[in-house]
Amino acid sequence: MSNNWNKGVTLALEAPGKFTTISNLQQASWALIEDWPLDDGEALNRALLVIEAAIKGKKTAEQARFAFIAAAHEAQIEIRD
């Protein structure tokens, strides 16, 4: 099972207009823990759980990707398609 996503998520994580691309479970987990503007949130907590489950093979990488995107929306982080 791959930890890489089919399509990376490009978002303004560090500052508005400063985009970075997250393309796998490890990068997503690191971003949520280290760089996220919110310390707490329903979507953030869910994303952390889904990513952890995906790393263990209990969820798919795509489920983790969708949870990560939901957390970004919750934190009002700009996402570039």
Question: Which helices and strands, and how do they pair?
Answer:
Elements (H helix, E strand, L loop, with lengths): L3 E12 L2 E7 H11 L6 H14 L5 H14 L4 E2 L1
Antiparallel strand pairs: 1-2, 1-3
Helix pairs in contact: 1-2, 2-3
Describe the structure.
With 81 residues, the protein is α+β, with helices and mostly antiparallel strands. It is built from 3 helices and 3 strands. α2 packs antiparallel against α3.
Biggest sheet layout: 3 strands, antiparallel
Proportion of residues in extended strands:
25-35%
Poorly predicted ranges (pLDDT <50, ≥5 residues)? none
Number of helical elements:
3
First and last CA, distance: 25 Å
Overall geometry: globular
How helical, in percent, are the residues?
40-55%
Mean pLDDT: 94
The ordered string of helix (H) and strand (E) elements is EEHHHE
